[in-house]
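Translate sequence into structure tokens.
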Amino acid sequence: MTQVSSQQVLDAGLNDWRQLAQGLHARFLTGNFSAGLRFVEAVAEAAEAANHHPDVTLTYPYVDLQLISHDVSAVTKRDVDLARAISDIAREQQIEAKPEALAQLELALDTAQLAAAGRFWAALLTGDADAVKGDDVADPNGRVPLLWFQHTEAHETPRQRFHIDLWVPHDVAEQRIQAAVAAGGTVVDAEQAPSFVVLADGEGNRVCVCTVLDR
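Result follows.
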């Protein structure tokens, strides 16, 4: 399957869904466990018919879903098509989506020696030293956030080597940034906005607020 671009995802009009760092995401407010289970069962039928399956988290008040084509590690047309079908199911069951509640957390480690760091972090985080794919340590069981290695020149410590990448819906990013600034943060670098904006807390610890726009 061919990867679809972030702009193609936006043009698809998937109002219930937002593209974050890894795939398409949605939260549906089912209200209770029984309603959530009925919703998930209907989603499972649609997934089986499409021969394409989302990652599903069923909790008491809501259901979270993620769609990505794992064979190409990207969003494809089949993800877009299944997302649309799932939204149709939600409307039939009178279940509301809440895309503004979505977020995805990644950890980034500046390193000039991936070979020295990658297997260590893979073994520590996932129990498998071989769980390094390209520049990422990915936990196939979804227990810990994705860790990716940002290539840098060798440098002396102290310098912040870890930072957080917080992926939020593109239409939520500015609100989230302003809330963080109002809570005592500062904008360090907005040159790459809306792709990402670098913030710092009162002690100088940095975080990137990321969206899929302009990538």
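Note: The chain has two domains: 6-100, 104-210.
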